[in-house]
Amino acid sequence: GYVVLLAKGAGLLEAQHLEAHSTADGSVTLRHRVLDVLYRSTGGAQGESEHVFVNGSGLPTQQGVWRVLELGFGTGLNFLTTAAQAQRLGRSLNYVAVDAEPIPPEFVPVGYPHTDLARAALTACRQSDKPQTMQAAGICLELHPRRWQEAQLTLEPVHAVFHDPFDPSVNPDCWTVEAFAWSRTRITPTGRLATYSAAGHIRRAMREAGYVVAR
Fold it and tell me: Which of 55, 132, 135, 171 lies deepest, with the highest CB count within 10 Å?
């Protein structure tokens, strides 16, 4: 499998730009001090990742190799949670993430089987400013430190899109019809897009991009 990352912003994000926050389920998220936004819900970072993205995308019922495209790698928690679930179920994982502002690797959450893999990808990506691919025991992570508009992706159609950039007030270009069309052309006919927002204008943009949206 493999993972691709595209960053959330421009420039090199440093440790002084971030601060850790405990969340209600005991897991940790980060606050971006410059933008004054959190990477995950304070109601439970781990719980949100499992419920909204891994389970919400239907991946646990997917047989064979799991293929995921993520917009907004962030702290790497969605990748870590997905990789841990894939490992438990005996699945291989091809994980593609796009993030324009990769975090310093020391902020990747600890206690997950593939924390070191995520940290290695972030370290190499921040040093070279080029896409990086890391693999270990059926898990593949490819990191693109780019905006989604600039990412050069070559991948098989994915089973799940994790649409997880910062919210529209901070990252408006990640919530447009064009942004959703970018992922829609890369997903299988039965694949699912998972995201944390259900605002009306976002649902309309998804529909216009070709997604089927229902409650």
Answer: 132
Q: Which phi and psi angles does 69 have, rounded to 5°?
A: -115, 125
Q: Are strands 28-32 and 18-22 parallel, antiparallel or unpaired?
A: antiparallel
Chain centroid offset of residue 204 CA: 22
Phi, psi of 61 (to 5 degrees): -95, 0
Report the alpha-carbon distance of residue 106 to residue 9 in Å, rounded: 19
Residue 44 contacts residue 24 (beta carbons within 8 Å): yes
pTM of the model: 0.93
Within 10 A of 6 (CB to CB), how many other CB atoms are there?
Answer: 29
* 37 DSSP assignment: E
Contact 77, 45 (CB under 8 A): yes
Sign of CA dihedral 8, 10, 13, 16: negative
